[in-house]
């Protein structure tokens, strides 16, 4: 059964159908996932360019080093930028690099583009905007700060809903950090917790110009339909652009869809042509070499053993690529395949739950225990959110038991004193394999918000290289080592008591967190 045929009914018109070469031409095993390139660009790279990071401190140090050494571009997309000393140090690194670029001979080459969420980035008197305004004032020609505002927060709702709660309607949730041709994909935001004791996932793609170009164009596209931060801390739309909450909602969403799909489709076309050219070159390689000598061999890149697929999810704009690919991966996972799936906020969509409970693969699902939930100890109503997650987890576990699936579907809770848990993604182990050949890494949490409300991006990394597979396996093992298996006894512990009002309210509000 073709994975591509499974996707066909779900496709939106902007995604053209490309006839892929027969699978018999593809390497067996790891690269059975070439159907994904029917939806998004496929970037073939060497596994030596991929580095998996393991700690917040490593992530933070890498950000600083990359900012300081960037010569052409720094592009950062995040939910928000924090306001502490560590975040100020990042801003200082940006200022230092921009200053260096300004002092260099000729016109300054370094360009900095930052994309954040408007509501989260505007929260409080000291916020992401006030942190970045000095850069705009000092380097107006080199710095751009875009603040995405969901088109679903408008009119009376926008006037009535208070700060913090307004973030439940929809957010810019993409986390990508790129410096010249180096790209970091993560689920981590630019905040001190994510640099110290909030566990996430991080992968560095080095010397990958095509991937860096793609994410630069994607951030530019979202930036173009976002509010632009000004030097006096006001915001305004680019000239000729529809306003996200004052303008016509349908027109705004159509414009945004067109801009983002242009990026995806033009990159896909470029990569298809490159793939065809490379394939043709490899077929003609021997005759070319005999005619052109060693020069030709020097120009040929090594064969890729790793493939990167960017998966975008922007339901407000009618873009559902990540959802389609994730659902197909879960559907197609064979008996005895193992899927390790992790999320900091366990609130799976009904479709994902049905696929996990109704398909044949083994699942090991890692989620946050209440004490390492990011909302643990929060003031007001937010303090009840960990209990709501416990309730959702208990309901799912009860369903697993009812269907006698406890052996096949196992829940595990991450627990680590003094830490919180924010890691998300999955690792896929084919039947009979002790190493993963595919991972998903990025911003989505596999919940309703990720699928329906927020702007999300992750990458599927598919590799045949055993050393990279080992890196991914070690990353998975390191996270799961800090966990305990969930059983019926788990929910009898005193700290798992869920108040009646939380049980009653959770079904009504679960689509907002």
TrEMBL record:
Biological processes annotated in GO: cardiolipin biosynthetic process
Record's signal peptide: 1-19
Domain PLD phosphodiesterase: 168-194
EC class of the enzyme, as a word: transferase
Keyword Transmembrane recorded: no
Superkingdom assignment: Eukaryota
EC numbers, comma separated: 2.7.8.5
GO CC terms in record: mitochondrion
Entries under PANTHER family matching the protein: CDP-DIACYLGLYCEROL--GLYCEROL-3-PHOSPHATE 3-PHOSPHATIDYLTRANSFERASE, MITOCHONDRIAL, CDP-DIACYLGLYCEROL--SERINE O-PHOSPHATIDYLTRANSFERASE
Protein name per the record: CDP-diacylglycerol--glycerol-3-phosphate 3-phosphatidyltransferase
Organism (species): Aegotheles bennettii
Gene assigned in the entry: Pgs1
